[in-house]
Design brief:
By secondary structure, this protein is mainly α. It is 61% helix and 5% strand. Among the domains are: 1-159, no CATH class; 164-279, no CATH class; 280-317, no CATH class. The longest helix is centred in the first third of the chain and has 28 residues, at 2-29. 40% of the residues are buried. Keywords: Glycosyltransferase, Membrane, Transferase, Transmembrane, Transmembrane helix.
Length: 496
């Protein structure tokens, strides 16, 4: 066993990350065009992306357009504006894939998202390598993200959340680089500016990116003050003025990050601003009086502000019941995963999508379910609790940074329990759950007295992760199987 571990370590050090990236690419790109149907909210974002690229704003579609769209008749939209409630950037990114491969190609609907999903695997490798100062532990983090079903499905679907997760991980990487430099001078922090750009891009995909902007900025302010405090006490005996430094450092951080993030966010609305057909684009401020503070703005920006007010009202009041809505308290345990696609075929019948004949007496099923790997998600709950306890006891910097990422992506949703929410929103903090798992595994290995046994245990855990991924792969990729095989994967009634 010792020789096996040594051999695996040599392979990992030489080729590990490239093998992991190859595996991640296969899981994200093989048969990416299946199903050739708009699944779940692709019905909004893919069609919005096409009109955005064609008109500069989201246009309207006739009633029940999906059948024609899926058949390749995509040029059936009108120039009339459509009311949408998410910023444009994610849809612009989806449009890049459509532009490259064609709107009549279902691979094009998902291609850009798949690329960013693959890039997220590489990013978490870079993050974990810096966070744990180890190439090997970086590879463990990349492997877990590469084979998790939640990440795989959100990388293979033309939705916004996988795009959001990419920009959040990118911002976190830049935050780590900024922390390494420990520079307190206002304009000598390029990595902090890069993080602000990334967070502006995240917010331009979904407004939940603003949570990360707020959490990361507060962390930077407090961290900078602690650095100042250590420097101050090294040269002074007078008490350190926390209040004044909070205002000064907070103002400095806001001066660096907020304008950069705002300009980045605003630039995503360029198409809407430079055209005249978008929803509310020709809003008359005289009809609905805006606050005096906004009267000096040019008319297009006043209209954009009004649009944001209406969209905000929609988001906070969204409480429409849905079969797959999931209370945020159950997200970490995957109590109600989202079924993106399900198609059943009776015995002896032909599947209308694949054309395959069902030859199993129980019938056949093809499903795409945004269900995570139980060995990752359920062990991740333990890891997060252990990490929180460890941070409370030690104030360890690494554990605090991981909890920061989790908290920014998860805690705000606990204040919106009356809102209609879905399990797949949690993909944005999945990377931080994985970092928590790696932290716990690494700590176990380094602090145990029997290192060989710890290595075997960790390898056994990673092996279990791979076994579960192989088992659940059919319901992540939509592979048609006998009905009884699909039913075998529904471990909890709420998964159906």
């Amino acid at each position: 066993m010792t020789k096996l571990i040594a051999s695996l370590r040599r392979i990992a050090e030489g080729y590990g990350i490239w093998l992991i990236m190859l595996l991640a690419a296969a899981l994200r790109f093989i048969n990416l065009g299946y199903p050739r149907k708009l699944v779940f909210d692709e019905t909004y974002y893919v069609k919005d992306a096409l009109t955005l690229g064609s008109l500069g704003y989201e246009g309207s579609w006739p009633a029940d357009p999906n059948g024609q769209f899926e058949a390749g008749n995509t040029n059936i939209f009108s120039s009339d504006p459509a009311y949408v409630v998410h910023p444009p950037l994610g849809k612009w990114i989806i449009w890049l894939g459509i532009k490259a491969l064609g709107a009549d190609n279902s691979v094009g609907w998902r291609y850009s998202v798949a690329i960013l999903g693959l890039a997220s695997v590489w990013l978490i490798y870079l993050v974990a390598k810096r966070l744990f100062e180890s190439k090997l532990w970086g590879q463990v983090a990349a492997l877990l993200l590469a084979v998790d079903g939640h990440a795989i499905v959100l990388s293979r679907t033309g939705l916004l959340d996988g795009i959001l997760a990419f920009f959040v991980i990118l911002a976190f990487y830049f935050l780590l680089r900024d922390r390494e430099q420990l520079r307190l001078r206002l304009f000598a922090r390029p990595w902090l500016i890069a993080a602000a750009v990334s967070l502006g891009l995240a917010s331009a995909v979904k407004w939940s990116g603003l949570y990360y902007l707020a959490f990361f900025c507060v962390y930077v302010v407090l961290s900078d003050i602690l650095i100042e405090r250590r420097t101050y006490y090294a040269a002074n005996s007078e008490p350190f003025n926390w209040v004044s430094r909070l205002f000064v450092r907070g103002g400095a951080t806001a001066l660096i990050t907020l304008p950069v993030a705002f300009v980045t966010y605003l630039s995503s609305w360029t198409g809407w601003l430079v055209t005249s057909g978008g929803y509310y684009r020709n809003f008359d401020a005289a009809e609905v009086k805006l606050p005096a503070a906004f009267e000096w703005l040019p008319a297009p920006l006043q209209a954009l502000w009004h649009y944001h007010l209406q969209a905000y009202g929609f988001h906070v009041n969204l409480s429409t019941p849905h079969n797959y809505q999931a209370n945020p308290f159950g997200w970490l345990l995957m109590l109600r995963p989202t079924s993106f696609f399900y198609e059943g075929t009776a015995f002896g019948a032909t599947n209308p999508t694949t054309g395959a004949l069902c030859q199993d007496p129980s019938g056949c099923s093809s499903a795409v379910t945004a269900l995570g790997n139980p060995a990752i998600w359920w062990f991740g709950v333990f890891a997060l609790v252990a990490l929180a306890v460890y941070w409370v006891r030690t104030r360890n910097r690494t554990s605090g940074l991981i909890l920061l990422g989790l908290g920014a992506g998860y805690l705000p949703w606990l204040t919106l329990l009356n809102r209609t929410t879905f399990q797949f929103y949690s993909v944005v903090f999945l990377p931080f759950t994985i970092l928590a798992i790696v932290f716990v595994l690494r700590k176990y290995l380094h602090e145990t007295e029997n290192r060989e046994r710890a290595q075997k245990t960790i390898l056994a855990y990673l092996g279990l992760v791979l076994v579960f991924s192989a088992f659940f792969l059919t319901i992540w990729l939509g592979i048609e199987t006998p009905y009884w095989w699909w039913r075998l994967h529904m471990w909890i009634p709420s998964w159906i």
